[in-house]
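User: Hey, my collaborator sent me this sequence without any context and asked if I could get a structure. I don't really work with proteins. Can you help?
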Amino acid sequence: MWSPEVVWLPVDAARIYGLLERFTRSALGQTWPEGRVPLVLHPQPPAGHRRLRDRYGSAIWSDVSVTPTASFRTVVAWRGHSQPVALKLSMSARVGGISRALPEFHIAGAIILSQVMDFIPLADRRRFGFDWFSEPAGLVDVESGCGWLLRLLPSMMHGSAGGDLMPAFSLIAPRDDRPPPIVDLIRASNMKPETFVIEQVLRPYVRTLAYLMFEQGLHLEAHLQNVLFEMAGESLTGKVILRDLSDGTVSIALRLARQRPFPIVTRSAPTRSAPFPLGSAAADHMANDRRPWLMRAQDTVEGYGLRQLVRHMNASLEQCFVRYDARRVARAYFGLWQQQATERLGVKPLIVGRAGGLATDEAIAYFLRNVDWRSLGASGPVRLPARIQAVPTGQPTRRRAGAAYRRVECPWGDLFLEDNRPAFFRPAF
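Assistant: No problem. I've predicted the 3D structure and written it out in structure-token form, which is a compact way to encode the shape of the chain:
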């Protein structure tokens, strides 16, 4: 445990997203010197942050305590007896081949995604049994292009109480000479291991992510580290908690089709323009390595769900239970996704490929092609404007000459349709 080190940057040397001053004051009791903004340093700061420390000096928030988490760059911070918050900091390291400096694109994307998720009705959060760690504010220094995020516990934003939270990786990890915690939960439940995994773990997991993906147009990196399960005594409550929104994406087309609201995206007292359009910073056609094809649902269902959560859980339980049926669990997992897609999209995605995959992206594309866009205000035919961004649809997208498109307006910009499928987007800001 230690106290965080802060560089007080001149206000014109940084960009602030969200209400950072409000949250640092209310959560950590910190006030800002006039004309200065706080760059919180990781104990292993990147070279750019070290240069800023040498240039401007640093101070210690001596009345704030921080302690590390299982994540390399996230710490828990609190002041006195106040409720803790998490600080996601830029770190001078590469983990898994990925730089752990927190870039501005991810900072802005996390805050925009948090603002989008704030529109999810409380009734839906309770009915489907999920919540998340909101990331309402952050800062980036304009010289290095990286910075830090402030993350709130679910109870601070949404008033949810609940029991203890256990990350999925901890749920299935051995404890020295003892089996993983999930083994104790299975034995206490008197259920078959496979039945417990399907009903107590996978069903709430799929239910939550399917609602977010199919109804809200939100794709999150729901892997072993970012998914937590709520526990009450020796049982799971069925509630899923999600964290780390910086790698999530928003499908503008699907939110338009579902008539979901769009927040008005703003920065707090900016002195320079962001180097990318804020209106699409979290959109699915710009994030996720800017892939030129549609793979958001595949990442969610197969990448983070099947290859990480399901397979690691199966591998752990195969060591603890004789004749544990991992294939049954994998089949049930796909069955749960098929059921959710059928109910929410009106189409059942097929299981494809030798390795076992699910045509979920294709199901979403089919749904979007069959939306009555005219009833949602589509106008045209119109020509494409000069500056646009391609929307990944699973098909090649080439600019066509002439008035070959229809346009749907939203607060973030204009969506252009080609043959009734989303093809291009022009951000408004």
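In plain terms: The longest strand covers residues 235-242. You can pass these tokens on to your collaborator as they are.
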